[in-house]
Amino acid sequence: MKKFRRYLCMMVILVFVTNAIFESNVTSAYAFGGGTTPSPSQIPSQIPSQTPTQAPTPTLTPSPTPVPTQTPEEKAKTKITILSQPTNWCNSSTVKILFENADGIKQVSVNNKVEYTASGNYLPTQKYLYVTLAQKNITITVIDANNQTVSESYNMYYIDSSAPTITYSINNGMLYLNSTDTESGVKEILYSTNGYNYSSYRSSGINMSNSNNTTYYTYSIDQAGNKSSIIQISNIPVTKVAFERDNYSVEKNSSFTLTPIITPSNATVKTITWRSSNERVAKVVNGVVTGISEGKTTITAISSNGYKAYCTVTVTGLSVTGINVSETTVTLRYGERHTISATVLPYNAQNRSVTWSSSNDYVATVVNGVIYARNKGTAYIIATSSNGMKALCLVTVTGTKASSMSFQYGSIQLDLGEEITLAPSFYPGDAERESVTYRSSDSSIASVSNYGEVIGIREGVAVITGISSNNLVTTCIVTVKEDLSDVTLNYTKKSLKKGNSFKLRVLGTAQKATFKSSKKSVVKVNSNGVVMAVKPGKATITVTVGNKTLICVVTVKKVKGKHRHS
Predict the structure, then answer these.
(1) Where is the segment annotated Disordered (predicted)?
(2) CATH topology of domain 404-480
(3) What is the pLDDT of residue 92?
(4) In this structure, are residues 311 and 248 in contact, taking their beta carbons and an 8 Å threshold?
(5) Number of other CB atoms surrounding residue 497 within 10 Å
(6) Which residues pair with 384 in a beta bridge?
(7) Which regions in the chain score pLDDT beneath 50?
(8) Pick from 29, 154, 159, 161: nearest CA to 97
(9) Cβ burial, residue 296 (10 Å; 0-12/13-18/19+)
């Protein structure tokens, strides 16, 4: 019994020591994952040395509980240390990276590219890799022996794989180049006139004025060695300079701008030098000509490559100092018109021209001082002198503009030669009366005068249209019919001998009639009303005129004579 107790005590001590060793191993594994590393006094001397050999595969037994997901502590088993980085700007660099995992490293990927895969059953707990990087931001992914994945992102120093950008501008014949780079910065801008021999660009610019038809090539390099794309800048020369006119005039102490016409319009350098042949008469600065004293001078525009344009400028005398209108207020009814005048001061001013305008054309318009009242409201009529001075007249328009118009008849029937007058009415009731233009859709049926007088010409239907001065439209349908109540025939009955004829006439109308025989074997009739007796008997001739029917009864008698007997 005592031996058994001693044996039991030894077993308990052995279990205690084994647990201590296991806990120490776990602590060491944490240190590889970036956790807190224990001090040397905390590490038991019984910890066995780590070997890279593959642990035996355990026998798996079913478990009633699900396998737990990876914990942060499990992820921390893998430790990634970047041991070297570039110290100067570059567009790619090879860096040294240390990977550590107590259970073993199975695979390493950088930016989704596999850089290392363990071979066989040997999984190292430490792995040094040299990886060539061509971008600043990288993501490192490590798969350990337990197929646990750890991904970390890093921002590398001094790696710039993006190219700089280059732009240019042209000002006063000078070409200016500019480049930007958001990472390492621009190192140098280069340019060439042949695409082969490049020179460094200076910020003072490149003079393009004397380099016609030259193409410039330029690119830039950043501190990491990345090059921008090469851009081409063509120098299209000026081939002609001209003015719109040969002669201009300007008042003393006034100015105007000359704009030269440059050919071609897409010329690269459009810089113009200006000259006046007599600056005591007029000066020119950047195309702005100012009259100094009365007289004439020649203004010259010169391109950077020597092409010239000339024009003569005449400086006239006194400038306008004021302007007045004959009336400052006017009241008009809708549709009326009224004339005002303008006086330019001084009376001997060189340019006494006046321009008229209205502040509200809907209410009133003006042409050479004649005001036309258009709609109810107020508007200013403005008289403007040649040098921009203004005088105002306030116009008030009363009355109402018509919104609709109609004739007293929508439709009417007329006899031939009958006449009526169509009178338009305007609405609303207080609307001003508009002038009306009349038209007939068929003047051969019904004609209409300028005053709305309609006359029936021949039978038929015509539409009379009225159009007001403010474009209102109304119509009247006119039907023309002849009164045939007094129409008769020259015969209502007639006797004929066989072979004889007569003409049946329609009396009381000029309308065309139609003729028809009831028995063509007895009596025939043609379209002109000529009746011919064919054989003895009786027939009725029916005459139709418009909507009226007339009848003539014709009797054909036998011809008396001797009879022959066989």
Answers:
(1) 35-74
(2) Immunoglobulin-like (2.60.40)
(3) 86
(4) yes
(5) 12
(6) 355, 390
(7) 12, 15-70, 562-566
(8) 154
(9) middle
Nearest-angstrom CA–CA distance, 138 and 111: 6
pLDDT for the residue numbered 27 = 33
Residues listed for the chain = 566
CATH architecture of the domain with residue range 488-557:
Sandwich (2.60)
Q: Is the dihedral of CA 111, 115, 119, 123 positive or negative?
A: negative
Q: Residue 243's CB: how many other CB atoms inside 10 A?
A: 16
**The model's pTM:** 0.37
- What CATH class is the domain 240-316? mainly beta
For 106, the token pair is 């199975």
Asked if 92 and 132 count as a contact pair (C-beta separation under 8 A), the reply is yes
Q: Which CATH number fits domain 322-398: 2.60.300.12, 3.40.50.300, 2.60.40.1080, 1.10.940.10?
A: 2.60.40.1080
Q: Please state, in angstroms and as integers, the Cα–Cα distance from residue 320 to each residue in 34, 41, 151, 299, 315, following that order.
A: 92, 108, 85, 25, 14
Question: How far apart are alpha carbons 300 and 308 in whole angstroms?
Answer: 7
Supply angle C-alpha 221, 222, 228, rounded to 5.
45
Distance CA 431, CA 429 (A): 6
The residue written with tokens 């070409």 in the block is: 175
Q: Taking the domains of the chain in order of start, what are their residue ranges?
A: 2-42, 77-155, 165-234, 240-316, 322-398, 404-480, 488-557
pLDDT at residue 75, as a whole number: 53
Task: State how far the Cα of 454 lies from the Cα of 423, in Å rounded to an integer.
Answer: 11
Cα 307 to Cα 91, 174, 244, 272, 279, distances in angstroms: 50, 18, 16, 9, 22
Which tens digits make up the pLDDT trace of 405-416? 999 999 999 988
> Is there a contact between 229 and 219 (Cβ–Cβ < 8 Å)?
yes
Comparing C-alpha atoms, which of 399, 230, 387 is closest to residue 319? 387
Q: For residue 147, what are its two tokens?
A: 């197929």
Q: What is 165-234's CATH number?
A: 2.60.40.10
Type of residue found at 397? V
pLDDT value of residue 254? 86
Fold match between domain 77-155 and domain 165-234? yes
Per-residue pLDDT tens for 178-234? 999 888 899 999 988 888 899 888 877 788 766 667 788 999 999 988 999 998 888
Position 80 scores a pLDDT of: 92
Give the C-alpha distances (Å, rounded to integers) separating 317 from 7, 250, 253: 136, 9, 9
Which CATH topology does 77-155 take? Immunoglobulin-like (2.60.40)
User: Do residues 550 and 516 touch, judged by C-beta distance below 8 A?
Assistant: no
Query: From CA 6, how far away is CA 3, in angstroms rounded?
Result: 5
pLDDT value at residue 93: 85
Q: Token pair of 201, please?
A: 């660009």
